[in-house]
Design a protein that fits this description.
Strand content: 5-15%
CATH superfamily of the largest domain: Glycerol-3-phosphate (1)-acyltransferase
CATH class of the largest domain: Alpha Beta
Number of domains: 3
CATH topology of the largest domain: Glycerol-3-phosphate (1)-acyltransferase
Distance between the termini: 60 Å
Shape: globular
Mean pLDDT: 93
Number of strands: 8
Radius of gyration: 24 Å
């Protein structure tokens, strides 16, 4: 076993190749933007928003081949086997106030370890919100990240600047597997320079100012919505607007013209979502009464559509009758392969369903799905290879094996497609009973 958490480990390096493939292939679209913002002239602490439990570190781990060290709440290290496993995975504990004052005293060692990792040049990843929450918002940032930065400054012998790199992780859906994820690296925050510029101010004041700056920088990397009484209505409004093809094309074209560059893939989606949110917030600021009336209508529609099993995409981008019939036909034609995939995928989806029964936090759903896929991908391939080649001809077995490879992805994608078609059909049948939807 390596002596320090950042030391090279051949087994870890080998397994990371498989893990990276598994992570990236677990998403329909996996997009990394802003990697050029990662500083090369100093010590770097990676700071990201935290919305999707253990999938957040997994998607960051796979942004590059370089190993990374992560932090996690200390209570999951209590069992010896868990502590050893996490150490191998380059995850170290950090204690929070909620763990008790006695526990927090152990953070001196955690800060020393983090400092050693950063000074050795390995990316050190921390989630300054200190807990996960599936929302397009941010919790109050903890001060631990700044204590680590100060420790690195104090212990650096190379006189290099210390940066905090803000990273936004944006998911297409927090709870649906095989969806989209955008990892957005922002402009680095030079902590060394900031502390120097505020050297004459009390340390608590400087700490609070650093927290405010980092909060703003993190908010810029995501679709940020203030976490107040209008949160649900604003996000619903944004999805209704951005989901409309005409609004999307027009808004994206305007944004690209302002920025003077094309925004590819998920970056464009995020930009349009941000603009829709900004429009709603601007209306609330300039015309509060009109905004209040609008949000009430939007929220009424949101509650009605959820009750009726209708997706926001269905309402935002309503399809015509012929298009709906075509989608139904596609769903019917895809059903036989779905049945085949359900059979060959049962080695993975049955354990997943059993695990999800005991998962109380919805944010862990995709973590459980990914964990089962990672653990059982190779065993499932071996089992079905044996079955196919034992009971079928070589040619037939080869075809069946090839058809089985994307089985789990197809199960999730077909499920999403079938829900969309069902949603479209319900909207056609129940639209006349819906609250106002023309915003």
């Amino acid at each position: 076993m390596k002596n320090r958490i950042q030391d090279k480990d051949p087994l870890y390096t080998f397994l990371k190749i498989f893990v990276d493939w598994s992570v990236r292939s677990s998403y329909r679209r996996y997009q990394v933007e802003g990697a050029e913002n990662i500083p090369t002239d100093g010590h770097v602490i990676w700071a990201a928003n935290h919305t999707n439990a253990l999938m957040d570190p997994m998607v960051l781990l796979s942004t590059s081949r370089i190993p990374k060290v992560f932090v996690a709440r200390a209570d999951i290290f209590r069992k010896k086997w868990a502590s050893k496993a996490l150490y191998f995975l380059r995850v170290m504990p950090i204690f929070r106030i909620r763990d008790g004052l006695d526990a927090v005293k152990h953070n001196d060692q955690s800060i020393a370890t983090a400092t050693s990792v950063i000074l050795d040049g390995m990316p050190f990843v921390i989630y300054p919100e200190a807990t996960h929450r599936p929302k397009h918002s941010l919790l109050k940032l903890s001060k631990g990240i700044f204590h680590i930065a100060e420790s690195v400054i104090a212990n650096s012998k190379e006189n290099k600047p210390v940066y905090i790199l803000p990273i936004g992780i944006e998911y297409g859906d927090y709870f649906r597997f095989h969806n989209d994820v955008l990892i957005n690296f922002g402009k680095p925050f030079n902590i060394t320079e900031f502390i120097s510029e505020h050297a004459d101010e009390p340390q608590p004041v400087v700490m609070q100012k650093m927290r405010e700056v980092l909060t703003q920088k993190l908010a810029e990397q995501i679709v940020y919505i203030p976490d107040d009484e209008d949160y649900d209505a604003i996000w619903e409004y944004a999805k209704l607007k951005a989901g409309n093809p005409d609004y999307f094309k027009k808004t994206l074209s305007e944004i690209e013209a302002r920025q003077g560059k094309k925004l590819k893939g998920l970056l464009g989606v995020q930009a349009v979502d941000k603009q829709a949110v900004a429009d709603a917030l601007a209306l609330r600021e300039s015309k509060p009464d009109q905004a209040r009336e609008l949000f009430a209508k939007v929220d009424a529609l949101r509650l009605w559509r959820i009750q009726n099993g209708i997706s926001v995409r269905t309402i935002a981008n309503e399809c015509g009758g012929l298009k709906l019939l075509f989608r139904i036909l596609i769903a019917i034609l895809g059903l036989p392969y779905y049945g085949f995939c359900a059979v060959v995928g049962m080695i993975k989806w049955i354990p997943t369903m059993l695990i999800l029964r005991n998962v109380k936090d919805d944010a862990f759903y995709n973590t459980a799905r990914y964990g089962v896929r990672l653990a059982l991908a190779i065993p499932a391939l071996i089992v079905w290879s044996l079955i196919f080649f034992l009971f079928f001809s070589w040619m037939t077995a080869s075809v069946l094996l090839l058809l089985s490879l994307p089985s789990l992805k197809y199960l999730y994608d077909y499920g999403s497609y079938f829900r969309r078609v069902s949603s479209d059909l319900r909207w056609k049948l129940r639209k006349k009973h819906a609250p106002e939807s023309d915003f």
